[in-house]
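Hi W., the iron/sulfur cluster complex you wanted:
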Amino acid sequence: MNDKFKLLQEIETEIKICTKCPLYKTSNCSVAGEGFYDAELVFIGEAPGASEDKTGKPFVGLAGKLLNKNLDSIKITRKDIWIGNIIKHRPPENRNPSIQEIKACETYLKRQLDIIKPKLIVTLGKFALNFFLPETVLSESHGKLLTKADLNIYPIYHPAAALRNGEFKKAFVQDFLQIPAIIETISSKNN
Ligand code: SF4
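Structure:
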């Protein structure tokens, strides 16, 4: 078995029995994240919603469908990417995660990214962006390539926000279309 795959599975097993914050008590199951263990492109959202909490899979509800549609538009499939959230259990009624919950959960995503070592991390929404860059404002920085240490971060709106607001949807679609060019830019810098 591939080492990266095995290490990611070990983290998933830890997440399933995690009690480091109260969210495990009110959710149905954990959603560790899924996809290609060696992906160069990773998408990170905020937390599981109702559909994710039912299935244990990330981005399977309406927001996930919009994400899939936009992946299609740049000819990338879910099999090519890895996708997960900063929070691994659903907050009740989809409320925002607290600072304490984000802090309690952060080790899992950091370890997952250390294993995958993606070329580009696309953050979906404010919480995912601020997980990496706490001071950065999404409305000013979406669609721009940012860096932190050795990470390349590309913030875009969350697909759930895009479903609620026409302006956000327009920006979401436009920013999404730039992803292949952003990956190309990173690749040429690395060569
Ligand atoms: S949300 Fe994260 S820290 Fe909280 S119980 Fe789940 S895995 Fe543990």
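The chain is about 50% helix and 15% strand.

W.
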